[in-house]
Design brief:
This is Type I toxin-antitoxin system Ibs family toxin. It comes from Escherichia marmotae. InterPro entries: Toxin_Ibs. Belongs to the Ibs toxic protein family. By secondary structure, the chain is mainly α. The protein is built from one helix and no strands. The mean pLDDT is 89.
């Protein structure tokens, strides 16, 4: 469960980076 949360957070943070 925790893995998905971390992945989602990283994706959200990386999204605006582009």
């Amino acid at each position: 469960m925790m893995k998905w949360i971390i992945i989602v957070v990283l994706l959200v943070i990386s999204l605006p980076a582009y």
